[in-house]
Amino acid sequence: MVFFPPLWRYSLIFLVCITCLACAARSVRLPKPTPRESLDFPLNYTEEGIASWYGAEFHGRRTANGEVYDMYKNSAAHRYLPLGCYARITNLKNQKSLIVKINDRGPFVKDRILDLSYGAACALGMAEDGLAPVRIELVRLPDQEDRQRADFFIQIGAFLYQANADRLQQQLSPYYPIRQVVYQRPDSALLHRVWVGPFSRIASARKTLRELEAMGYTGSFIVAE
Question: Which domains does the chain have, with CATH numbers?
Answer without folding.
Answer: 37-146 (2.40.40.10), 152-224 (3.30.70.1070)
